[in-house]
Amino acid sequence: MAKLLYCMNTSLDGYVERPDGTFDWSEPTEEVHTFINELVGTVGTYLFGRRMYETMVFWEAAHTLPDMPQYMLDFADEWLRADKIVFSTTLQSVSSAKTRVERSFDPVAVRKLKTNAERDMIIEGPNLAAQAIKAGLVDEIHQFVAPVILGGGKKFFPDDINLQLELIDERRFDSGIVYLRHRVLQ
Question: Is the pTM of this model over 0.90?
Answer without folding.
Answer: yes
